[in-house]
Design brief:
One of its GO terms (cellular component) is membrane. The protein is an alpha+beta fold and 500 residues long. It is built from 19 helices and 13 strands. Helix 11 crosses helix 13, helix 14 packs across helix 19 and helix 15 crosses helix 17. Bound molecules: protoporphyrin IX containing FE.
């Protein structure tokens, strides 16, 4: 660009900044006048478009600021997300306006709740329905379980939960995960630096695909993994669907994943109705074929299965990776974890019996470590809902069509709920008084995560074999929380075998 271009750009930037400054100032003045007229009552309330009428009702609408025109408070929201304290955006506004406040982020006017009770009410109420960013809804498609409502949602949720919690599925999952963990860990010492974030993705994907659709290792699985990876890159992106854009590429990859799953479903149907469900696809086929449910087309199966693979690719491996990070930084916790797991390992070696699901679930301190990792890691830091009518929640009024963001991370980092919340302290889970209702890493209410137990199992199997057979030295790395939780350098460590 020549100097003339720079001049024009500079002019428009200055003009834009001046306009925004004026607009904000004018708005602020206007708001202060209104506040004075209302006798110092609720400030910054009553957005246009809110269905709630009447002065009294408007006062109960969460207070806050809409920020700049168009972009609202998005820039600050993103900047805080990238900082070492992502909850600082919420904390600042909570101190100004209270535990539930309004803001304007990512193109939406939203109420944000940092209050555990309000979050619980939102998760349980039928009056709130899911509302996700456009890129997510575009990619997950019309059959998404995250968006599904009413009877269909209850049915599908029940089927998946029922299967994943069944003793047979748990035993199968434990065996698959154990095989995958042992195979993967045995290569780590020779690898030089191991990138835990990448390696744990490999560990969890294969067993998940087996539990979901009975697919074993091979070319199809490798191709699917590749395409699936491409697909989830687009979950948080600009919602523009033109050739070459992120969303476009992800949609194409989703189509390829869907074709593979459709083929598996067709083959299973051709082979005859499965008498006993060995995987989630069997469960869904049994339901559709046996009970012929017109509202549940066969095409729904590939959509559900694709969605169920998302946690296998991101959530579970990320908790494993964060646990390694926090344990590296907290040697006392690592020592106690190792002792507990060595006791189980010696027991198993002496008895010659294989590990069972119950063995891994009996490791008390290991589960304290997992809880603390989930509390601090906040893999799902919030859920989004939309009010389908004006709704009263704990004295607040959420007007019809407003989105509400129930922030789990704010509750998990609130020192009213957890003392020294920024400290990794697995021992806090030993205390009797620890309030489980304020701990919601897996959500709650009608949409409580059906993969909760399987996830805990996978993470404890990984930790057990890692700490009893290996030691490691980690390179410097930091946690990034936006747009999704990940490690800046994928958590490089050097691993050595230990003798027991
Ligand atoms: C550490 C790992 C995981 C975390 C932190 C996690 C977290 C969550 C959260 C917070 C929700 C609630 C979303 C909402 O209310 O809108 C959820 C829903 C869900 N999760 Fe997980 N999840 C994990 C692993 C898994 C696994 C392994 C599976 C399946 C194999 C799974 C399957 C699902 C499904 C199907 C839903 C939707 C439930 C519904 O809307 O009815 N999750 N998960």
């Amino acid at each position: 660009m020549g100097w003339a271009d720079w001049f024009v750009v500079g002019f428009w930037v200055l003009a834009g900044a001046a306009y925004c400054g004026w607009w904000r100032w004018a708005r602020w003045g206007n708001r202060t006048q209104k506040k004075a007229a209302a006798g110092g009552g609720a400030a910054g309330v009553a957005g246009s478009g809110g269905a709630a009428g009447g002065e009294e009702e408007r006062r109960r609408i969460p207070r806050g600021s809409k920020g700049w025109p168009l972009i609202g408070e998005t820039l600050e929201f993103i900047a805080c997300g990238y900082s070492s304290r992502p909850v600082s955006f919420m904390e600042k506004r909570r101190d100004l306006y209270g535990k539930v406040f309004r803001t304007h982020i990512l193109g939406k006017e939203v109420a944000v709740s940092t209050d555990a009770e309000v979050n619980r009410a939102v998760l349980r109420s039928e009056g709130f329905v899911p509302c996700y960013p456009r890129s997510v809804t575009e990619l997950l498609g019309k059959d998404s379980i995250l968006k599904a409502e009413g009877a269909l949602h209850r049915r599908v949720h029940g089927l998946i939960s029922g299967f994943l919690k069944s003793p047979a599925a748990k035993a199968a999952a434990a065996a698959e995960v154990e095989r995958s963990v042992l195979q993967s860990l045995s290569d780590w010492p020779e690898k030089g630096p191991v990138f835990v974030q990448e390696e744990t993705q490999k560990i969890t994907f294969v067993p998940l695909v087996k539990v979901l659709m009975g697919m074993g290792p091979g070319e199809d699985l490798n191709f699917m993994k590749e395409q699936f990876h491409e697909f989830i890159q687009g979950l948080i992106c600009l919602p523009i669907k033109l050739p070459g854009t992120r969303l476009f590429k992800s949609l194409k990859a989703k189509e390829k994943v869907k074709n593979i799953i459709d083929k598996i479903v067709e083959d299973k149907i051709q082979a005859g109705e499965p008498s006993m469900a060995n995987d989630v696809v069997d469960v869904l086929i049994n339901e559709i074929v046996t009970n012929y449910l017109p509202e549940m087309p066969i095409s729904l199966i590939s959509s559900i299965i694709t969605e169920l693979m998302v946690p296998g690719e991101h959530s579970v491996p990320m908790v494993m990776t964060l646990a390694v990070k926090y344990l590296t930084d907290t040697p006392l916790a690592l020592k106690q974890l190792r002792e507990e797991n060595l006791t189980l390992r010696r027991e198993k070696v002496n008895s010659g019996k294989p590990y069972a699901w119950d063995d891994y679930m009996s490791l008390t301190f290991t589960h304290h470590v997992i809880n603390e990792t989930l509390r601090m890691g906040n893999i799902v830091n919030a859920v989004w809902r939309r009010a389908i009518r004006d709704i009263d929640v704990k004295g607040y009024l959420i007007p019809k069509d407003w989105c509400i963001l129930a922030s789990f991370s704010s509750v998990h980092f609130d020192d009213e709920n957890y003392s020294n919340p920024n400290e990794f302290n697995p021992w806090r889970w030993e205390a009797d008084g620890i309030c489980v209702s304020k701990f919601t890493p897996f959500g709650g209410g009608r949409r409580l995560c059906p993969g909760q137990e399987v996830s805990r199992l996978e993470i404890s199997i990984f930790l057990h074999h890692l700490v009893t057979k290996y030691s490691w030295v980690a390179e410097e790395d930091t946690i990034v929380s936006f747009p999704i939780v990940k490690m800046k350098r994928k958590m490089p460590i050097r691993v050595s075998p230990v003798s027991v």
